[in-house]
Write a structure and sequence with these properties.
The chain is mostly helical. The protein has one domain: Orthogonal Bundle (Proton glutamate symport protein). It is 76% helix and 0% strand. It is built from 23 helices and no strands.
């Protein structure tokens, strides 16, 4: 029992339960604790930009030969494939269960959301153009993750060429060390995670209670069914491809799952996911750096699933019969939105309004979806975070970069202990396969 209580995952889970109970007992007064939870979130968020920047640069800069293209191809291939499957499944489930039929919402929509969504829907060219920033410092200051990743990929590719020509690894070693330092900083911050989670959930329970769940039970249920089906599908594919026991996965994913569902943020959970991928699953450092960094922003199957259900829900709530073209448009928009945004709390309202405006749907029911977004956020983030790890396993399998001893628990590894030079022979073998 004492050993179990010492586990960070168990401590966070206990804190989450106590926070909910406390919030329900004291009511709105629990909102006075919100600033503590917000402080915890900010401590995590401030490390995301340097961690992603360093991770992508190191992963790209350390690649050799054709293996670089193979790694990128496998990453984007699996991400896009599962995204398409998620969108198609969402359409099927929403058509079958019709969660929006009979729903009604009498609240008002914030006019600012309509303006933001309308502005985004008017100019897709600008949206795509904004994937590349004219000022990467400004992008880092504002936390625009896609422009940062694009810059990091180009910088890493240029660094890769520089190292190959000169043999000088000073800059590459700098970013490698920066990544390790930021990960250490994250470990320090995570010591107060139980306190932060307690305060966040106490505030939420005190403000809205549980009654809000029943108002959109069909919507939440449809999303839940989709999340379960996609996760089981991904686990089945991983088991078939890697020949590793799927029964060991729950224990390996437990810590990041708890952090994900209590913070509802893939970004906040990213450091834990990166550490677990190497230390518990046995994925090599370079695959973990590259695939998880890309997956955090562009591999969110949970977001694709939820956004597509939102389109069908709004259509059903407004009595609109969608054409095949509108359904396909909604699915494509869901995938592109996923590729262009990072999953953090608070972004869903504008996404929902954007989808409604783009597909020409009534917006009256958007308020209902916003009301229960914390619960759908839990489901989205749960699938996003664990899906990224499963995709990383599939990518690592392509180049034989899963340490099966680590996965089976017969050997230990830490992110600090892993040296890129130690994996050079494995990298070269992977390149030779091409």
């Amino acid at each position: 029992m004492k050993k179990a209580l010492a586990s960070p995952a168990v401590q966070i889970l206990i804190a989450a339960i106590l926070g909910i109970v406390f919030g329900l007992v004291v009511g709105e007064w629990a909102g006075n604790l919100k600033f503590v939870g917000d402080l915890f979130i900010r401590l995590i968020q401030m490390s995301i930009v340097p961690l992603v920047l360093a991770s992508v640069i190191v992963a790209t800069g350390a690649m050799t030969g054709k293996g670089a293209g193979r790694l990128a191809g496998a990453t984007f291939g699996w991400i896009l494939g599962f995204s398409v499957v998620s969108a198609a499944l969402a359409w099927g489930l929403a058509t079958l269960f019709r969660p929006g039929a009979g729903m009604a919402f009498d609240g008002e929509i914030d006019p600012a959301l309509e303006e933001s969504a309308a502005a985004g829907a008017q100019d897709w060219q600008t949206t795509i153009l904004n994937f590349v920033s004219t000022n990467v410092v400004e992008a880092m200051a504002s936390g625009a993750m896609v422009p940062i990743i694009v810059f990091a990929l180009l910088f890493g590719a240029a660094l890769n060429t520089f190292v190959a020509k000169t043999g000088k690894r000073t800059v590459l070693d700098f970013f490698d060390q920066l990544q390790q330092i930021v990960l250490t900083m994250i470990r320090i911050v995570m010591r107060i995670a139980p306190i932060g989670v307690f305060c966040l959930l106490a505030d939420l329970a005190g403000r809205v209670g549980f009654a809000v769940v029943t108002s959109a039970l069909a919507y939440l249920g449809t999303t839940l069914v989709g999340v379960v089906i996609i996760l089981l599908l991904m686990v089945a594919v991983v088991a078939a491809r890697t020949r590793l026991s799927p029964w060991k996965l729950p224990a390996k994913l437990a810590e990041q799952t708890v952090v994900a569902v209590t913070t509802t943020s893939s970004a906040v959970t990213f450091p834990t996911v990166l550490r677990n991928a190497v230390e518990k699953v046995g994925i090599s450092q370079r695959v973990a750096n590259f695939t998880l960094s890309i997956g955090m922003t562009m591999g969110s199957c949970g977001a694709v699933l939820n956004y597509t259900i939102v389109v069908l829900f709004l259509a059903q709530a407004g009595g609109v019969e969608l054409t095949i073209g509108q359904v396909v448009l909604g699915m494509v928009l869901s995938i592109l939105l996923n590729m262009g945004t990072i999953t953090v709390p608070g972004g869903f309202p504008v996404v929902a309004m954007f989808l409604a405006t783009s597909v020409g749907l009534p917006i009256e029911a958007v308020g209902l979806l916003i009301a229960v977004d914390w619960f759908t956020g839990v489901l989205r983030t749960f699938l996003n975070v664990n899906g990224d790890t499963l995709v990383a396993m599939l990518v690592a399998q392509n180049t034989d970069e899963i340490d099966r001893d680590v996965y089976n628990g017969t050997r230990t590894a830490t992110t600090e202990e892993i040296d890129l030079e130690a994996y050079r022979e494995t990298f070269e073998k992977a390149d030779a396969v091409d």
